Amino acid sequence: MASEPPTAKGLETGDGAGRLTMPKALSLFAGAGGMDVGVEGAGFQTVGAVEVDKHCAATLRRNAGARRVWEADVRGVCPAQVGKELGLGVGDLTLLHGGPPCQPFSQIGKRQGMADPRGQLVFEMARFAERLRPPAVMIEQVPRFLQSPVASGMAMGDLLEERFASLGYDMHSATLNAAAFGVAQRRLRTIVVCLPKGSAFRYPFSLLGSPKTVGEAIDDLPAAVPKGAQPMVPNHVDVTPARDRERISHVPEGSWLSKVADVPPDILGRLTRKDTTKYRRLARHQPSLTLRCGEALYHPTLDRYLTPREAARLQGFPDSHVFEGPIRRRTGTVANLDQHRQVANAVPPPLAEALAGAIRASLCRSQGSYAA
């Protein structure tokens, strides 16, 4: 199986009965579906998704359409069984895509890399590719992922490239800023694209013009509602506690609490000058800071957290994409991923769409065929 080159059979436009079909995609580490939304915007049909977190899986089901969702640890999922249940023969899948957990490589984490069991999950992408043989694989990760050292003395990029080369793929990589693709957020991510050996690939060009701003993304939303009320726009719910409202009321737009001069000691608490992302207001006329799981960014002018819907707007999700699960207050905890963390973990759909479009164009060029 590993010696057979990946095939572009999935790029065919007919199903044998004269009906046009879209190229099929499968999502691993699907999260709340940000990459799925973008891939589908580029003309693919995501037929299945694998995700271990129960709240993310519920979100995927809510927005699934005809997609099959496996709520499971990907390490316990058999690619052959997935293919069988989806009716996929070898080569019927065009794109395998996913964003394996980034915590082992994140700059704000412990950066244990391969010493963290989650650091090895990226190779599940290769395990599925070996069995299903898609002509394209797309992986999203944090910027320094490929430079992370591994036990053998090699960098992660070398090890991953070697693994995919053994399956018949050339590996391409680049670090892109989502803000350059119509996302109202500065978000650097490394994107790995694996294509059949000898295939040329060009990463998508950045959009022309100024980056989209926070105000452009969220200013047309109606007023947020308190927990328990029905919002006019899904997930536009405010859960900010009174104490946090009081603390952020001292912060000018675009600044953060520890930077404010003469703030009362009881308001500052134990914050230090290094705490530049805590109790931080966004600025209306700039792109957002990178959304992160452990941080709660504040509305530019109102004394409250961003709602999950506002955060989703900053990631480029359509309002039709509804998030399931609880909404966590900054000082509280919930099991599994709450709505804010689902959004913060997601791949911005506009970035995913631009990449999937570039992949599709590359496959069409290299195979001399056109995907409808």
Largest beta sheet: what is the strand line-up?
Answer: 3-2-1-4-5-7-6
* CATH superfamily descriptor of the domain at 9-208 and 347-367: Vaccinia Virus protein VP39
Q: With helices defined by DSSP (H or I, 4 residues minimum), what is the helix count?
A: 11
Q: What letter string, H or E per element, gives the SSE order? A: EHEHEHEHEHEEHEEHHHHH
Average pLDDT over all residues = 89
Q: What is Rg?
A: 21 Å
* DSSP strand count: 9
Tell me the CATH topology of the domain at 9-208 and 347-367: Rossmann fold
Shape: globular
Helix content: 25-40%
The CATH class of the domain at 9-208 and 347-367 turns out to be Alpha Beta
Largest beta-sheet characterization: 7 strands, mixed
State the distance separating the first and last CA atoms: 28 Å
Which structural category do the helix and sheet elements fall into?
alpha/beta
The percentage of residues in β strands lies in 5-15%
Explain how this protein is built.
Mean pLDDT is about 90; it is low at about 110-115. The longest helix has 19 residues, at about 350-365. The strands form 2 sheets. The chain has a 7-stranded mixed beta sheet, sandwiched between helices. A two-stranded parallel ribbon has the order 8-9. Helix 1 (about 35-40) packs across helix 11 and helix 9 (about 310-315) packs parallel to helix 10 (about 340-345). It is of the alpha/beta class and about 375 residues long. Helix 2 (about 55-60) links the parallel strand 2 and strand 3 (about 70). It has 11 helices and 9 strands. It has a domain at about 10-210 and about 345-365: Vaccinia Virus protein VP39 (Rossmann fold).
